[in-house]
Design goal:
The chain is an alpha+beta fold and 278 residues long. It has 2 domains: 169 residues, Spore Coat Polysaccharide Biosynthesis Protein SpsA, Chain A, CATH 3.90.550.10; 79 residues. The protein has 9 helices and 7 strands; from the N terminus they run H-E-E-H-E-H-E-H-E-E-H-E-H-H-H-H. A 5-stranded mixed sheet has the order 1-4-3-7-2, with helices on both faces. A two-stranded antiparallel ribbon has the order 5-6. Helix 4 crosses helix 5. It starts with 19 loop residues before the first helix and ends with a helix. GO terms for molecular function: hyaluronan synthase activity. Its main location: membrane. Belongs to the NodC/HAS family.
Length: 278
């Protein structure tokens, strides 16, 4: 009500809950500015986020830019602390590396700015995406980013544009969220394959690694269980290699972030092996 009479705001009321994608499309088509900022309802933006994202978007070659995500409820449970570290790694390792080559492969939904003229070029494709014969209702941010790249625009990451979003504080919702994201990643990888030859070769390596990594971890885990079941011997080498890689990764993250808490991210490997992979 406080903003109802403010001419700077225009509210679009839909007749029913049509899902995030349809609501996005209605807002985009009803907008008039040069830039469109997508923010989730549970996301809090730092005061300078819009300014910093808009500054990055001054380059007309850039179609979308995302900010750095943190967990607003980080201190609630051990899981929210873990997810906050996961977000830091996803933003400051994966997205930051991709941005060096002008192609962030997924501008995350909680905080992403788009060029409206670019959106209008891909909006029909975005609206009519189907998955297994039905309109898609997940993975909107990744699919929209891929469409931007296919249209010839760059996608960027702005690390000092910080947004805090609510993350799951229980394992059940977290695992369901991860399943949706995994389905989106694998599905849109096929769409991105035709795009990769036009991008830097690092991005091909990155996409292949993201998709093969979980599969290799799954195969290693299955082989270890098979060894234990068939030979009654403990697969020490498999466990040692996985543990070593985990410690190295977490140590590098702790060094780069200057925070020892990242050593605790080792726990995420156990969640991957025993909960996410099954």
């Amino acid at each position: 009500d406080a903003y109802a009479d403010d001419p700077r705001f225009s509210f679009i009321l839909l007749g029913k809950n049509v899902g995030k994608r349809k609501a996005q499309i209605a807002a985009i088509r009803g907008s008039s500015g040069d830039l469109v900022l997508n923010v989730d309802s549970d996301t809090i933006l730092a005061a300078d986020v819009v300014t910093k994202l808009a500054r990055k978007m001054q380059d007309p070659a850039i179609g979308a830019a995302m900010g750095q995500l943190t967990a607003s409820n980080r201190n609630d449970t051990w899981l929210t602390r873990l997810i906050d570290m996961e977000y830091w790694l996803a933003c400051n390792e994966e997205r930051a590396a991709q941005a060096r080559f002008g192609a962030v492969m997924c501008c995350c939904g909680p905080c992403a700015m788009y060029r409206r003229s670019a959106l209008l070029l891909v909006l029909d494709q975005y609206e009519t995406q189907f998955f297994r014969g039905k309109p898609s209702d997940f993975g909107e941010d990744r699919h929209l980013t891929i469409l931007m790249l296919k249209a010839g625009f760059q996608t960027e990451y702005v690390p000092d544009a910080v947004a805090a979003t609510v993350v799951p504080d229980r394992l059940g919702p977290y695992l369901r969220q991860q399943l949706r994201w995994a389905r989106s990643t694998f599905r849109d990888t096929f769409l991105a394959l035709r795009l990769l030859p036009e991008l830097d070769r690092y991005l091909t390596l990155d996409v292949v690694g993201q998709n093969l990594g979980p599969l290799l971890l799954a195969l290693s885990s299955i082989a270890a269980l098979a060894q234990l079941a068939l030979t009654a011997t403990v697969p020490w080498w498999t466990g040692l290699i996985i543990a070593s890689m985990t410690v190295v990764r977490c140590s590098v993250a702790a060094f780069r972030a200057r925070e020892l808490r990242f050593l605790g991210f080792s726990l995420h490997t156990l969640i991957n092996i025993f909960l996410l992979l099954p």
